[in-house]
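Hello again, I could really use a second opinion on something today. I've dropped the whole record in just underneath, so have a look.
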Amino acid sequence: MSLGGFISKIVVSVTKTTFQFNKTLDVLIARFKDSCPPTSELIALIAQKNQINGALQQIQQKIIILNKIASTSEAVVDGVKAGVTIIKAIPIPTSVPPGVGIPVSIINMFSDALDTLGTMIDKEEGSLDSIPEALDLISKDVGEVITKLNEFDVAINDCAENDPGLNEDDLTAASESIDLNFVEVLTDEQLELLLKEPPGLLYGDYYLRLNYINSEFSFDKKQVTAQNKESVPPPGEFYKAGAPIEMLYGDKSFSSSNLVLVDEMKWLIDTKDLIFPPPEPAEDPMKAILKLNQVLILTAIFGAGQEEAEELYEIAWDLSQNKGWWRWKYNDIITDAFDNGKTILEQSVAFIGDEWKEGLVMLDSTIKTLFLGDLENEGEIKVYLSLLKFQGKALYEEANKVGGNYNWHSRRWDEDDKFLNTPDARLYPYSERLAVANESIYNDATIGQDFLDLRPIMHRRKRRWQAIFEVANYLSLKNPKIRFNDPLAEYFISKEIGYNTPIVNGINVIGNSETPITEDELISLYELEKEIVIEWWMYNADHQATPPITANGVWSDGFYSNLDSYAKTQVMLKLLTALGISWYNLDAEKISEFPFWGITWENTQIFNDYNDPNRNLDPSDKWYFAFGKNGLPVPTGS
């Protein structure tokens, strides 16, 4: 058969397929016309969407051959750009709803035709000039399907957001319904591990990562992003210092599986040169021309150092171009520039300078000066800079998650008492240091004469900045390449909340000359932890159950049978965070056997276990205390 004959065959099969698509999507969309379907039906529709996208991958890879080969000819560029839309328009429902699926024969016919067509083009057995004509013929039909497919996806996401009966397990179950023949051999869970572990999943010239986008619902949206491999710091294997960062962003979805999101990103990478216009020039010439004056303003008026001023200028320039993180202020900047008789860039510089003075802009250059000044290798600096920012952001977000709303006046979270009931021992001192740095609620006497000059620094110490200081302190204790200094360190000591004084459950752990913690301190921590746990159990247990039990397996039969073992686990986790892994490896096993835990041995047999937290518990119990369970590492002994 000639090349023209195969192209005709493709046109016929796509026309048939898009006709069926339109019928199918009309039926699916109609289910959302008056109201959202019930939860069980919505789950089935989500599974159907995932199956559609899974089946799509078979055909996508074959169309790549056609588009990439055709793109070598200038005569077909326009046609190829129109034809790329085919790929997103081939969901192929073959089962749900009954009676409106696409026959598998149509899928196979289309796939076989593409296989043969790709082979013929490879052998140059026809003219590429006929390809754009074929793509023009089918682009209109394909466009209609794309519109309906997008409408279907929007309807699913809208209903998923507002369905109180839908949970993460439902979405997982729907994701697992995908036929893995279409997505190679990885399970959804295996893929998630690869995507979450730095540097990510390598595909072509990009590392793929999975991001969760917070929402007000019980489950979050997911999005796969891709970053060019040369810009990903170690453990990325291809890192080149100074390489520009290129990011690709996949769709955000409540209902798509990791497998589907990765396949969509792989397709985006494979076809990006056909879809996206060439990049703009590396730098606007005006950016360099105007830089000197604005950097001088940032140093002279706002007090920034040279490196800080240059970084602030970069942020302000992006804002003036309606780009970057601060772009949400762009419309206000335009209005203020008009009112103040300034250019948009001048107003952007003034705004970013003010935000920086208020402590609301964190600069890489400031973090480097404070904590990484001893490093000279640019690769190492980037790695540790990323580590500090990542862990600082994680601590800040954990505080927001546990503590609820944040009060800007008091610099406290509404429920910061909950910080005592968490294994992360950093939260309580982080919160307390942030609060005592609030210069606006102290007069000169309460600040202290020795610290009055620190008022400007206290004023700038906001949540994100203090989180960076907290993690820098913890990391510096383990890694000599990170140095720690804080202008407020002595002030915090004066308020009895100094760095490196471990604080667990609100108690300063001082220890003695021989050990960081004494038995008396440990007894106090454990008794306080039991009170915290009992109160927690009262508010979280299902009191209709026998015995009353919480969602994570803590229960009471009247004697708090596994609450004590749960409390002992929590104390050990908190001490691990507060005193560090080195102490834990040396001493955790020894203190876990202190006499007050209530175990008395005689002739290698337990003689008395009245106070033993594991008393009357079977080792299979969820909270049976043992190293290696519930996040407790096994101490190495050295």
